[in-house]
């Protein structure tokens, strides 16, 4: 037991590593704060456009969404960071991570929101237009609020995945939480920084997990 505590729960090493772990946590929060709104905004635009009846617009957008949902985000990130420079485009670590996460999360948000939009009864937008609302007003005040409400658990679940996804930014040396924890581990030859990082992720995400469970239970109860 003492060996386990010394290797994984060493308080002295945790205290020594805390400055760079805090820096990594800040980077993780900044990355999530950038990725979630941009991905959600891109998802809304893609979802709305994919509901258009024009096949020349709809099918390419569907192919775009399917492609970036299917490709592993780690592969996409490595391609953007290490592959594009061969084509004369060097995004740097932050640029590659931002673009890769935007493409991946935007595609997932788009599919979730498209399902939410299709769940809104068609008669409601038609009734709103008959009352004189403009097309953008119908979307903003009638369709999108109901669509978001109908798929809110899925949106929250995807947001949790986005926050966890930030950990793969360590492969391009972006100094987020996991990268800093691995750096501290390599210096101290001890796994305690990794355990501290795992605890930080848990504390950060557990309230959202509980909220998601309550929403899912409420949604199931409402269908009975």
TrEMBL record:
Q: Which UniProt keywords apply?
A: Cell membrane, Membrane, Transmembrane, Transmembrane helix, Transport
Locate the ABC transmembrane type-1 domain: which residues?
25-205
| Primary subcellular site in the record, as a coarse category | membrane
Q: Name one GO cellular component term.
A: ATP-binding cassette (ABC) transporter complex
A GO molecular-function descriptor: transmembrane transporter activity
Q: Where are the transmembrane segments?
A: 20-49, 61-81, 194-213
Membrane topology term reads: Multi-pass membrane protein
The subcellular location is: Cell inner membrane; Cell membrane
Q: Which SUPFAM superfamilies match?
A: MetI-like
User: Transmembrane helix among the record's keywords?
Assistant: yes
Does the entry feature the keyword Cell membrane, yes or no?
A: yes
Family statement drawn from the similarity comment of this UniProt entry: Belongs to the binding-protein-dependent transport system permease family. HisMQ subfamily.
Classification via PANTHER family = AMINO ACID ABC TRANSPORTER PERMEASE (PTHR30614:SF21), MEMBRANE COMPONENT OF AMINO ACID ABC TRANSPORTER (PTHR30614)
Tell me what this protein is called: Polar amino acid transport system permease protein
- Print the organism lineage: Bacteria, Pseudomonadati, Pseudomonadota, Alphaproteobacteria, Acetobacterales
